Amino acid sequence: MATKAKIGVLGASGYTGSELVRMLLRHPRAEIAMLTADRRAGQAMRSVFPQFSPFDLPTLVSIEGQDWSTAGLDLVFCALPHATTQKVLKDLLAKAPDTKVVDLSADFRLSDTSAYARWYGHEHHAPELQKEAVYGLAEIHKREIKKAQLVANPGCYTTCAQLPLIPLLKNKAIETDGIVVDAKSGMTGAGRSAKEAMLFSEVSEGFHAYGVGGHRHMAELDQEFSAAAGKEVIVSFTPHLVPMNRGILSTIYVQGRRGKTPEELHEILLNFYDKADFVHVLPFGETPQTRHVRGSNWTFIGVAKDRVPGRAIVISALDNLVKGASGQAIQNMNLMLGYPETMGIDQVALFP
């Protein structure tokens, strides 16, 4: 059997950390060699997530005091809060410069460190690493990811919006003004930490918008959409919280440019993702549901005609914990380590 890469998961007690473990357990070329979780340090993974009881996994340890120079890790997934990540990775890469990193936080997604400071409220603690970081939307930046040491895994909302819109912007097929992204996410997008606003009685039987007019993912969208269009693009983006565990559904409103019809926009997306492993464009007029991608690394995209001439409604759906986080992170790992892109993450959606 081929040699397995030794993998560390920093922040394994969160939702994205546990999802990484779930998929890595079935990855034929990955050996889980380190799991960290500061509040749970010293505990077995099975005591935090009982579904892992049958598996022999490393005991959870604290990041504090780790000797990265002797850890022998080939690649690390970092599922830590923003700001904390910058300090940890700065130390890790100084002591183990050959270790590859996929960062699932927002810390290295913005190439402009002044934009990071503006949106996140503090200076970037590792600007020298930011210069090396590659934005990890595999369908768009695959060539750069293959050569990268540090990959910034995209946000879940941004992945769901970028996959349908970037091909249309690259092809100058839609007007750059007036794009509206109306997005809804399941509860796991808010993380696993205890929060009063996330209590069952606070969210059950309700549905609400948040971060209205100022959600941090807007900076990520501005950056990637502007790069795709070759000019500044600022979209209207509003996230909503839905009382379900998993999934993101984005309903996107666009106007065809220079007479481009919704059918032509659909054809552009079909051609762009013709050979993509994890993006599926539905027949024209059909639209996806979050349940169609639950537990999978797939993004489904549908295009429908609006009643306003020339305007199209583009709907995309993905699992926020898989393609929106951990599955996409392993997709990036596969590219970075020279493995087949689909290895270990080609599971079909769980339905119902």
TrEMBL record:
Q: What is this protein called?
A: N-acetyl-gamma-glutamyl-phosphate reductase
Q: Which organism is it from?
A: Pseudorhodoplanes sinuspersici
Q: Which HAMAP family match?
A: ArgC_type1 (MF_00150)
Q: Name one Pfam family in it.
A: Semialdhyde_dh
Q: Which reaction does it catalyse?
A: N-acetyl-L-glutamate 5-semialdehyde + phosphate + NADP(+) = N-acetyl-L-glutamyl 5-phosphate + NADPH + H(+)
- Which superkingdom, per the lineage? Bacteria
The entry's keywords: Amino-acid biosynthesis, Arginine biosynthesis, Cytoplasm, NADP, Oxidoreductase
Q: What is the gene name?
A: argC
Signal peptide: which range, if any? none
